[in-house]
Amino acid sequence: xxxxxxxxxxxxxxxxxxxxxxxxxxxxxxxxxxxxxxxxxxxxxxxxxxxxxxxxxxxxxxxxxxxxxxxxxxxxxxxxxxxxxxxxxxxxxxxxxxxxxxxxxxxxxxxxxxxxxxxxxxxxxxxxxxxxxxxxxxxxxxxxxxxxxxxxxxxxxxxxxxxxxxxxxxxxxxxxxxxxxxxxxxxxxxxxxxxxxxxxxxxxxxxxxxxxxxxxxxxxxxxxxxxxxxxxxxxxxxxxxxxxxxxxxxxxxxxxxxxxxxxxxxxxxxxxxxxxxxxxxxxxxx
Length: 286
Description:
By secondary structure, the protein is mainly alpha-helical. 56% of the residues lie in helices and 4% in strands. Among the domains are: 3-84, DNA polymerase, domain 1 (Orthogonal Bundle), CATH 1.10.150; 110-226, Intergrase catalytic core (hpI Integrase, Chain A, Orthogonal Bundle). Helix 2 packs across helix 4, helix 6 (126-139) packs antiparallel against helix 8 and helix 6 crosses helix 10. The longest helix has 21 residues, at 64-84.
């Protein structure tokens, strides 16, 4: 069977299995890149060397994280083909996953967050901007989860919100008093009848609209470095850890399927490490 034919059946299977449209599009795009690179070969003839050459080509000009994503997609696709079509071998089995250097996630400092919130007061849609910013900082929600929110998903009385994450997995997150007040101010001033929690020009807001609001607020706040949507998620995680929150609770709030993913935040509280080091003074006793 040709790669292109196998890809169509793979996409059908993953769609039937409930994978999100975004995940499906990632699968389709990355496997099509493989076909463009090496031609539409028979899947039985694909050798480990073919995939290594493809990954080596992908490396140029791309981050280690992107290369690792390509590897994961290839592994998912060829493992599926191996079992579905009883291939003589799985060509990805002998290829090591590309190494991704471990880096501490960036986050906004307290003075930057305060500056952002103050900046929303000077924006045209000030109540919407503040409500969105507070909600993302209070829940660590992904941008895609925020734009999919409906008003009925937020319970202001209970202080909870129902998020739908990757592959539509549902989870409950909690919001504080100031976030509830900001959302109530925003909703009270709305005249539209859209069911979405945060509206755009037509019906629900798009991710590009969220990005525009955050960038405008950062510019008005005088923040020089790049402020992006996922930085708000990292900032929530940082404040959770610094505030004494545990990793397992953070995993559930962020919607991670594995604690390994959440572990990147384990070393984020450098201030706590500094305090402990100052108390122990490992070398001062010599």
